[in-house]
Amino acid sequence: LQDCQEFMCSAIEKAGDIVRRGIDAVKKVETKSSVFDLVTEYDGEVEDFLVKEIHNKYPDHKIIAEEKHAKEPLTDDPTWIIDPIDGTTSFVHGFPLVAISVALAYRKQLVMGIVSAPIQREIYCARRGKGATMNGNRIHTSTIDNLLQSLVGDEPSLASRDKYNQEILVRTCGLAKRVSGIRAVGSAVLGLVYVARGVLDVYQVVGIYPWDLAAGAIIVEEAGGIISHPDGSPFDVMNGSIVVSANQALHDQIITFNKEFSNKIVEIRDK
């Protein structure tokens, strides 16, 4: 795994040059599933570069990637899970909170995650059982264990999707009275690594994709955090929803909150 990590750290740093070149450029923007789901030529360029690097180094490894390899299943084979630009809407607008996310799974378990925040020149790395780092320095989740004192990451813009509209809006409004503050990051994987490094205490998101979460999930765990599905059930990387917390005490509180507000969402739907 160390060889895989060293290889991908080098590759993802080179891919960051593409993002830095494109952040302020005029972009060719296309929509995918909706007007809220964007893609640029830079997404494709980053993905193509990383896929080529992986195929050259590890020709037998599988790949799941957002733009051209999204429908590949997760098997027991070594599988790279790639989001070439997480936060494409931010990228389109030149907003600098964007990331490149790459995870490695083996036997359907995450074993490594690497995240690059190219504009900030930050690289987050984790291998199973080896801890987590940012630019080579060990990172750890915060010591905040009271939800009322916590800074929480959430993504209310995902309420644009009808399926999650009420869930996200009801939860976010309720959460505003229970925490110190709420921050919309605009990139799920950055939200996760911000919990890992202790600048957010909780982060949760629903209705996204494996490549948005895979690398950040293992980085949070290796930094001492707790991860699960927002209802408290075990995290499944292929599910697309997650809540992460700095520690178990905080995690218990956010899961209790989520369960309380899930009942309110059901009440609203029934009316």
TrEMBL record:
- Keyword set, alphabetical order: Hydrolase, Magnesium, Metal-binding
Q: What is its EC number?
A: 3.1.3.25
Q: Has keyword Magnesium?
A: yes
Q: The organism sits in which domain of life?
A: Eukaryota
* Reaction(s) catalysed (UniProt annotation): a myo-inositol phosphate + H2O = myo-inositol + phosphate
GO molecular function list: inositol monophosphate 1-phosphatase activity; metal ion binding
BP GO terms, sorted = inositol biosynthetic process; phosphatidylinositol phosphate biosynthetic process; signal transduction
List of residues binding Mg(2+): 66, 83, 85-86, 212
Q: In which pathway does it act?
A: Polyol metabolism; myo-inositol biosynthesis; myo-inositol from D-glucose 6-phosphate: step 2/2
Gene3D superfamilies found in the cross-reference section: 3.40.190.80, Fructose-1,6-Bisphosphatase, subunit A, domain 1 (3.30.540.10)
Pfam families associated with the record: Inositol_P
Look up the record and name the cofactor or cofactors this protein needs. Answer: Mg(2+)
Q: Does the keyword Metal-binding apply?
A: yes
Annotated PANTHER family: INOSITOL MONOPHOSPHATASE, INOSITOL-1-MONOPHOSPHATASE
Concerning its family, UniProt says:
Belongs to the inositol monophosphatase superfamily.
Protein known as: Inositol-1-monophosphatase
- Its source organism is Phlebotomus kandelakii
Q: What is the lineage of its organism?
A: Eukaryota, Metazoa, Ecdysozoa, Arthropoda, Hexapoda
